[in-house]
């Protein structure tokens, strides 16, 4: 048997070597939970004989439109074809039938040697409407690959239920075509012990058992263990991280027993394990309810302050930016359109897209749609106008409204009001109806407010202006 950089997996290695020595084409489906080393096993055993390999791309649930997902997966498949030698002049396929036709052409130019074709993360590659890829993959195998006698086609996926339904079980579309099915399990306790021994970890049997219970025999997590630390030190660090993210009491809970917010806290603790200088949070609160979102934001703010940790947040939720960040950069179609301190951008956005984003965080902006709809609330009388006021920092707390009402003899009816704290500074806004009881009362009021560094926008005007 060849020497591979693998611990355990002897039975699986023997099966893979047997397939390679076969005198006919073979079709293998390998599946199992994430992080057990499926892709690594195939790469290690078949890597030198890989004629083609493509990996499906993960899309978040909200982004899984059929057309976009299909186009993106085909684009990545095409890039893999180019990587393995297909001419750059070949046009990108528009369907899975065309994609597998191009794969066939690529393989026909590889000579008569034994060729391995590896389709990794098949559930992601297939996308929401998986029937097209399954049908064309089956046709590719039946009409050509199985007849070549020198093809090993390997499909792999971590979405076990999808693999079972579409590939493994009798009613799956590829069931009758498979020549082998392989389910990869986590390491056994004995394999974990061998893993630590081969890497010169000086663990006692008790410590090995502790590590096995904590990591579940998952190769990926075992790989992260520091050989210079004892299991006790590792356990202490894990508990300290769980305490830091306020979830220590869930240390021995299963993932299914955790809420969405608790799972997010575990993810943050895992990210902190390597003591990073920068923590990247990509849509960290997008799937959480408002109360849980607030608690996660408070946690991130605490980590920023107590650890001196720089946090980069990628989000579409401006409330998240407002609550957490000190600086903001606004992107549109891959272009940076505005950046600056959070207060400066929120108080005086320069770009219309930024302004539209910020308006979603306050009910004050509702006035525009009400005016457009000619709502009863916006019906004004002669000598009246609807005005939006934007306060900044210190002038939020000054009694401006009562002052102009007394001095300039203007009645003021407040429609909307909003005062909030952005980066520890006050930012506020009002939408009011001004009614002047004497000539130029509103004009004088507006000039006074502008002198006080308050932005004034006249939205609707019914004054008799000469």
Structural account:
With about 475 residues, this protein is of the alpha/beta class. Helix content is about 45%, strand content about 20%. The strands form four sheets. Strands 2-3-4-1-5 form a five-stranded parallel sheet, with helices on both faces. A four-stranded antiparallel sheet has the order 11-12-10-13, sandwiched between helices. A two-stranded parallel ribbon has the order 6-7. The longest helix is centred in the first third of the chain and has 18 residues, at about 65-85.
Short structural description:
The protein is an alpha/beta fold. Helices cover 43% and strands 20% of the residues.
Number of strands: 13
Shape summary: elongated
Oligomer: single chain
Flag low-confidence runs.
none
Give a quick account of the main beta sheet: strands, pairing sense, barrel closure.
5 strands, parallel
Helix content: 40-55%
Q: If you average the pLDDT, what whole number results? A: 84
Strand composition percent: 15-25%
Secondary-structure content class: alpha/beta
Number of helices: 19
Distance between the termini: 97 Å
Radius of gyration: 31 Å
Major beta sheet, strand line-up: 2-3-4-1-5
């Amino acid at each position: 048997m060849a020497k591979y950089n693998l611990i355990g997996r002897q039975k699986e290695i023997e099966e893979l070597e047997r397939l390679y020595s076969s005198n006919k084409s073979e079709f293998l489906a390998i599946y199992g939970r994430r992080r057990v080393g499926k892709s690594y096993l195939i790469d290690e055993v078949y890597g030198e004989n890989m004629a083609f390999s493509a990996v499906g791309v993960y899309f978040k649930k909200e982004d899984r439109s059929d057309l976009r997902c299909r186009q993106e997966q085909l684009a990545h498949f095409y890039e893999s074809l180019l990587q393995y030698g297909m001419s750059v002049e070949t046009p990108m396929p528009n369907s899975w039938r065309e994609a597998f036709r191009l794969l066939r052409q690529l393989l026909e130019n590889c000579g008569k040697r034994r060729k391995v074709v590896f389709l990794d993360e098949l559930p992601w590659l297939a996308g929401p409407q998986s029937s097209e890829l399954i049908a064309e993959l089956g046709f590719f195998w039946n009409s050509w690959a199985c007849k070549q006698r020198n093809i090993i086609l390997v499909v792999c996926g971590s979405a076990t239920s999808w693999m079972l339904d579409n590939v493994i079980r009798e009613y799956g579309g590829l069931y009758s075509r498979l020549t082998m099915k392989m389910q990869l399990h986590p390491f056994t306790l004995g394999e974990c012990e061998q893993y630590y021994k081969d890497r010169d970890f000086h663990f006692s049997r008790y410590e090995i058992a502790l590590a096995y219970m904590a990591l579940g025999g998952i190769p990926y997590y075992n790989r992260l263990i520091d050989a210079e630390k004892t299991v006790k030190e590792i356990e202490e660090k894990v508990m300290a991280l769980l305490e830091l993210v306020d979830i220590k009491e869930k240390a021995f809970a299963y993932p299914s027993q955790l809420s969405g917010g608790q799972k997010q806290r575990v993810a943050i603790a895992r990210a902190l394990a390597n003591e990073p200088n920068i923590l990247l949070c990509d849509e960290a609160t997008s799937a959480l309810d408002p109360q849980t979102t607030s608690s996660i934001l408070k946690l991130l703010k605490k980590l920023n302050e107590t650890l001196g940790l720089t946090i980069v947040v990628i989000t579409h939720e401006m409330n998240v930016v407002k609550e957490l960040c000190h600086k903001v950069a606004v992107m549109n179609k891959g272009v940076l359109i505005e950046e600056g301190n959070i207060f400066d951008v929120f108080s005086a956005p320069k770009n219309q897209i930024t302004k539209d984003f910020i308006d979603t965080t306050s009910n004050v902006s509702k006035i525009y749609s009400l005016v457009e709809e000619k709502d009863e609330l916006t019906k004004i009388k002669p000598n009246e106008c609807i005005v939006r006021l934007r306060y900044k920092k210190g002038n939020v707390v000054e009694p401006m409204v009562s002052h102009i009402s007394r001095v300039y003899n203007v009645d003021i009816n407040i429609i909307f009001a909003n005062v909030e704290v952005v980066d520890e500074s006050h930012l506020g806004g009002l939408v009011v109806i001004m009614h002047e009881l004497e000539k130029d009362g509103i004009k004088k009021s507006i000039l006074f407010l502008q002198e006080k560094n308050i932005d004034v926008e006249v939205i609707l005007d019914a004054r008799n202006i000469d």
